[in-house]
Amino acid sequence: MILPAGRSFELTRELLRGAIDIHVHAGPHLFSSPRRVDPFEAATEARDAGMRAIVFMDVFEMSNGTAWLVSRAVPDMITFGGLILNTVYGGMNPRAVKTAIHYGAGAKFVSFGAHSTYFQASREGRVVDGKFVPLSELYPEFKREELDRCIRIPEGDPTPELAEILRLLADNPHMYLNTGHVSVEEATRLVELAEHYGIAKVLVASSVSKIATLEQLEVMAERGAFIEFTLAAYTHTTPIPKTHYYVEREYVSIDEGMEDAPKGGVKLVAEQIRALGAERCIIATDLGVYTLPTPVEGLREFIACLLDLGIPAEDIRTLTKTNPERLLGLPPEAATPDPAPTN
């Protein structure tokens, strides 16, 4: 491949101006899973880089409360938050969704679980005597306290709880549905249900995107969903054991339940963006963990990698600015002209 013209460090910095990172984990968190930045630092760094907004995600709290606080402490920066339906909120809990809509800055999204999906939690574990063993087999209490309470998206008619949450999302079109860490098949059902219930905006989470085939992603994109790609899902740290979610230290597990890194790396992301069309995709970071760069630097690196892989600057703006604006309901903001090519 011939390296594209116009690539420069300055261009990557310029493409951050007006950009939006819809997936930032900036703490607080468990002691066993240190954060790189706190929410105020993350927002300040994003503002100073010229970014327009960031979206906080938190596996333990309604992050719209965090957004409410940050907006008062960091002027000239837009922040959003929402709710991830993990077991700390009772899993598939409509009451938590109702509360999140009216709490703090108001929820901008509802995610159908991170580590608290059956698909995710049933695959978490570690290697024992050379064999990968799920936590549910190692610890009976893990099955009882976590796995049995995890979210599943049923085939056929939704449960009453799921139906109520879908109605709440449909009645609040300023919010979007995030599929969370469900299986590809469950994500496809959520996209179909969103269409049936009249939910305005859907995001297929990067945890789904990285394990789906291109054909599966095309089906969901054709139904109107945005496809998310996050840098964290394609980094060198993916197979490193981390305690992301569980208070019990003995539950430390292979990140994402995988024994090795995703195949294809960022090169695969570029290929899939080309195939799907930038107008259906969003890139973000999913950063905040202490083993990786700050979210702002991570987004710059992601942009740089995609430029090197031939994704043009105008598509980068679509991926980082235009589409996130549509997802968040922000009016379009004029982009700063790209600098002249340097080579």
Describe this structure in words.
By secondary structure, the protein is an alpha/beta fold. The chain has 14 helices and eleven strands. It has helices spanning 9-16, 39-48, 63-73, 94-102, 118-121, 135-138, 140-145, 160-171, 184-197, 206-209, 214-222, 265-276, 295-308, 313-328; strands spanning 20-24, 53-56, 78-80, 83-84, 109-111, 125-128, 131-134, 176-178, 202-204, 226-230, 281-284. The longest helix is centred in the C-terminal third of the chain and has 16 residues, at 313-328. The protein is globular and about 55 Å long. The model is unreliable at 335-343 (pLDDT under 50).
Descriptive terms for the model:
alpha/beta, 11 strands, six-stranded parallel beta sheet, 39% helix, single chain, 343 residues
Total of helices: 14
Distance between the termini: 16 Å
Shape: globular
- SS elements, strand count: 11
Q: Which secondary-structure class do the elements indicate?
A: alpha/beta
Q: Largest beta sheet: what is the strand line-up?
A: 4-5-8-9-10-11
Which sheet architecture does the biggest sheet show? Answer: 6 strands, parallel
Strand content: 5-15%
Mean pLDDT: 91
Order of helices and strands: HEHEHEEHEHEEHHHEHEHHEHEHH
Low-confidence stretches: 335-343
Radius of gyration: 19 Å
Could you give the topology of this structure?
Blueprint: H1 9-16, E1 20-24, H2 39-48, E2 53-56, H3 63-73, E3 78-80, E4 83-84, H4 94-102, E5 109-111, H5 118-121, E6 125-128, E7 131-134, H6 135-138, H7 140-145, H8 160-171, E8 176-178, H9 184-197, E9 202-204, H10 206-209, H11 214-222, E10 226-230, H12 265-276, E11 281-284, H13 295-308, H14 313-328
Parallel strand pairs: 1-2, 2-3, 4-5, 5-8, 8-9, 9-10, 10-11
Antiparallel strand pairs: 6-7
Helix pairs in contact: 1-13
